[in-house]
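Minimal example, chain plus adenosine-5'-triphosphate.
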Amino acid sequence: MLEIRELRKRYADKVALDGVAFAVRPGEMFGFVGANGAGKTTTMRIVMGVLRPDAGEVAWQGRPLGAADRRRFGYMPEERGLYQKMRVGEQVEYFGRLHGLSQPKARRATDELLERLSLTERRADAVEALSLGNQQRVQLAVALVHDPEVLVLDEPFSGLDPIAVDALAGVLQERCRGGVPVIFSSHQLELVERLCDAVGIVSAGRMVASGTVEELRAAESSTLRVVVRDAQPGWADGLPGRLTVNGDRHVLLVEAGEDQEILHRAIKAGHVEHFGVEHPTLTEIFKEAVA
Ligand SMILES: Nc1ncnc2c1ncn2[C@@H]1O[C@H](COP(=O)(O)OP(=O)(O)OP(=O)(O)O)[C@@H](O)[C@H]1O
């Protein structure tokens, strides 16, 4: 398990982290979300040893994380870090060698990853000749080439087209299923909701929520949405919630709870087109948490 324990960090008099803490289990995909400047990159840099915290620590398998552990981690930094003039294949292999792979192993892992990320045909091209999305795929290959024990990815999906998002998501899910804890930051909350087992929301350097999407939802109230066509006027008088009339459709939104009474009234009033509980999306949970 990767544990981020009460991290604190200041840049001069600016408090960037004020007690950030969460844990990522083996085989768990953890989405790290927060507004611009909330502290995600700072946290990930501390995990990877690029920055030192003022207080707190990061532990892996119950022990404080050291340089040797970090060499077995895969990292996609926010500032990216590819050699622009180097060819794609050579570059991925080179990073594999840096992480201690033998030449044949680095070659094999590079071949597999380039194939998986649809980059085989670009193998001999210099990185600078690739589109940004393809450069990002190379960056992911570099993060994965040594078969890392843990993956730490700073906004790996930003700027990718939907096909590339799916390709990258598939590779990450595979690693995750193999027992690797994966942590990634993103502003694409629908994607985080779709992919992640757990989510942490950071706001101004503090964790304001963390847990599975289901747990975060359970802390919020759900909304019952009732749509009645050709309803008699006044049918919802005295009921809680908010009624809007849209042509011949009456739409009642109410905090879920007294559902049966409302259902009876709706059936008596007209033709019930829709009656269902709507759970808050991660975007709604996020807005509420950072408000
Ligand atoms: N090198 C630095 N010097 C001074 N302040 C910094 C530095 N790096 C980050 N900060 C500040 O620390 C806070 C946290 O920044 P950080 O980059 O960790 O946020 P983030 O959540 O990754 O943001 P984004 O979503 O915009 O990438 C911000 O207020 C930022 O301005």
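The chain has a mean pLDDT of 93. The pocket of adenosine-5'-triphosphate is lined by residues 11, 14, 16, 34, 36-42 (CB under 6 Å).
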